[in-house]
Amino acid sequence: xxxxxxVKFVIFxxxxxxxxxxxxxxxxxxxxxxxxxxxxxxHATAALFSGGVVKxxxxxxNEGGETIAVPASFRxxxxxxxxxxxxxxxxxxxxxxxxxxxxRHARQTMILFGMFLISVSVLYSKxxxxxxxxxxxxxxxxxxxxxxxxxxxxxSLVFLGTSISLYSLYDLSDFAERxxxxxxxxxxxxxxxxxxxxxxxxxxxTVVVVLGYMIATLWSLLSIGIIFMSLRxxxxxxxxxxxxxxxxxxxxxxxxxxxxxKLWLEKRGVDxxxxxxxxxxxxxxxxxxxxxx
Length: 293
Description:
Strand content: under 5%
Number of strands: 2
Structural class: mainly alpha
Helix content: 55-70%
Number of helices: 11
Radius of gyration: 27 Å
Largest sheet: 2 strands, antiparallel
Number of domains: 2
């Protein structure tokens, strides 16, 4: 269990510095493609949950991806599906990071996450495409890691959560560099009543630029807020432990109890011989009061 705040912070900071230092390394490029796949899966998941249909997920090999989906008929479904990429990635990263730092159900989370990635890749990506290989590779790796034990699963969750969160924030820089090509630009064109053919125009209408930056700002604030709140909660989380049973107590403290320890237990209503907590009506002051005349 990662219960100490300084330890959590050191681990998180070390991962951040390592990822930044190797940002252009080949291994990190595989990691980036994985996070882009998570981004596209969030689009697909939002489409499915809103009643739409997902026809395919693809990765382009340049840290870009594409989800081909038909949203549900109600108007808000398109907004939900398009917004799910950036916001969803932040939620996934924050969720994994929190679970990793809490150290709860780490193995089960890794196994389920791996199975989910494999299933989505088989169902919605084309056999032999980059999205297919990326999903299968990472899915199998995560699944196997979850079977290796709790400690490595906890560390892996922290690593995955940190990586997805960091790239989600880095991905927001696209809004400043090529706004109209991002999800914010696509949503801005749609809200302005323009069609897909208008995306190819050299001159972008002013209303699209204004709407695009408003959407990008809102998504950025939400993404940063989600990750910040999760990180703050994770780093300040304190583990609570139940009172250990007598077997564990004897293993930790071998030998007979001293008179002082027995006195301490009896004052708190615990039988020092059996370790049984006595009912409230059996509590008594120790030593017993002398009522003799």
